[in-house]
Amino acid sequence: MKGTVLVIDGHWNKSVAAIRSLSKAGLQVWVSETSRLAAGMLSRYPQKRFLTPSPITAPDDFLESMLDIVRQHKPDVLMPMELTTQLLLSAHRHHFSPHTRFPFGEHQILIAAASKIKATQAAQECGLTTPDSLPVQSDTSARAVITTLGSSLVLKPDFGEGGRGLCYCNTEEELTEVLAQIPRGSSYLAQQRIPRSGSGIGVSILMDEQQQVLASFSHKRLREYPIGGGPSTCRAAISHPQAERDAIRLLTHLQFQGVAMVEFKEDPTSNTAVFLEINPRFWGSLPLAIQAGVDFPTLVYKWGMGIDFPKPEPLLGTRSRNLLPGDLLHFIGKRGRVSRDFWDLRHTPDDLLSLQDPGPVLGRIISPLVALYDPQLKSVFKNRESQ
Description:
The chain is an alpha+beta fold.
């Protein structure tokens, strides 16, 4: 297969996984980032590398830079890896459409899917099981929330990724303190907390313009960091028919197109997968799907180019982990109290480590250190962590 694809947001492990898989599929891969030391920029596979302003701290400059790249080099497909970048490009797709393809959903649909409040309302309209929920702001009465939902709560920013901004409350005093910290004009979603013993389930889907499922993949979280509410650090490919049906029903209801990962958590009291949120972009555990035979980046490229392909069947039981830094942080957070499989490096491939492509590991280690001395890079990391 011949063609060109520009992978945007090359800092992340999922970006490196996309770069590697697209290159192995025979495509010419280019990558862009705000720093030459990003993991994806140090991979051996990209044939072109572009430095751009930050889509977070300098969105207008980023758009101008990206449009210059697209006009000059004309990649077949743009492939952003982060939601902020995807939303920015989708809002200005009319500038890019004469020069390249952007196989992601319409802006307003992406916004609705990314909003935890709107996605939860849509899930309830579809009849999905959700935690009892209530939108809140800084002036919301803690007593009113507890009267409605009870005292064991989790609060999530309406727009936030990777567990950032999550707050847990067990008393009215704790909830009052959290509500007071919500920025004026911002909204959070307060929900009843599902018991921690329940496993996290993710259903990843590629859906076309007619809401036909082109590819799907499910995984279960085995470990995560932060513990009890962060991104997965080790996970396994599974089949979960109820969660898969619910995810398809919800995305169809939203008239979604493109890639998304719908998150659930198993309620141990009912054995039901309870809807949590939608990530309407490439997700952190993308390397597992690729390892299991569902190569979403390559499939998105083919879909964007109008190339037909059979729906892939995942290899159930496949595992992957994010050792640097995720699983190591999990190990520290658990004070070394981890299961025996933590030490099984042979049967659990790492998201980033590769003897054939060692550069990204160096970038993953060096970038945060350089950010200590580079104000612009530090600003990018700080803003990304707050998203």
